[in-house]
Please model this.
Amino acid sequence: MEEEGGGRSCGTTRELQKLKQQAMEYYRENDVPRRLEELLNSTFYLQPADVYGHLPSPPKAETKKGHDGSKRGQQQITGKMSHLGCLTINCDSIEQPLLLIQEICANLGLELGTNLHLAINCAGHELMDYNKGKYEVIMGTYKNAAEMVDLYVDLINKYPSIIALIDPFRKEDSEQWDSIYHALGSRCYIIAGTASKSISKLLEQGNISIPKSNGLIIKHTNQTTMSDLVEITNLIDSKKHITVFGSTEGESSDDSLVDLAVGLGVRFIKLGGLSRGERVTKYNRLLTIEEELVQNGTLGFKEEHTFFYFNEEAEKAAEALEAAAAREPLVPTFPTQGVEESAETGASSG
Model:
């Protein structure tokens, strides 16, 4: 019996080695992008294998004095996967993850703000501590809504490569949405996701300006038809807002979501972190579509991001002028009259 069990164990080991060899050949034959593979490694593991030597070295522990005067080591960066497939880490400041991204990009030869831009999913509704009535930006640090506006402004000033803030506040803080829009709306996209209304309500009311933003996240749910998606995308475009197509909770490996986003012509797609097959397959489909468009010569590039600052007063004034022009009576001009006037003009000039 022991020999039989050992035989099964050896057979299983050989099968695993064979699968591993097949996977390596697949990667080699299909030319899997090196950077994508490395990004997957850095996302999947808490201590990623630095295959190509581009990841920054772990931070060195610094000694700090505790409350009792004894020395204590600085907390190491550790983390776990969120339900969105992103690595959540413990950090000492808001800027620490951004500095880590900067160092990784520098090691990869990428320049933030040129080769790569950042969008921060602030998830203001999750930061709110309702007992204190303040946002907990990092553990133990609380800020009121007005202080959060200053925090975001300082962050964009220091890191201009950040081109979008998603849900910087909960939807109830409409005054702060107005403040941050007027402060940063001409420099980055202020995008409403959870803070926005459902697609059906947006179409019913025809108003996408609450909360004040210059972009919306839309999702294809069971209650949303294709006609609804086309109509809401056209509505958002008509208001000079941008559309972000996002994946839903409990998603599957169906990659048609990517085809739908490309077909609708949305500005961005929000798929979550590069982990788990249901997300990776969508990124792979996106790369495949890009390759097809390049081969067909139909891929359009947008090198710069244009931030439309929606001035409500100016927009209302323009609408009033259009309405006044529409009310003015039109003087009918007949073809014979136009010919006679042209002849008279020519005779007088002669």
Remarks:
- The chain has twelve helices and 13 strands.
- Confidence is low (pLDDT under 50) at residues 1-5, 44-52, 58-77, 330-343.
- The longest strand covers residues 134-138.
- The CA atoms of residues 240 and 308 lie 7 Å apart.
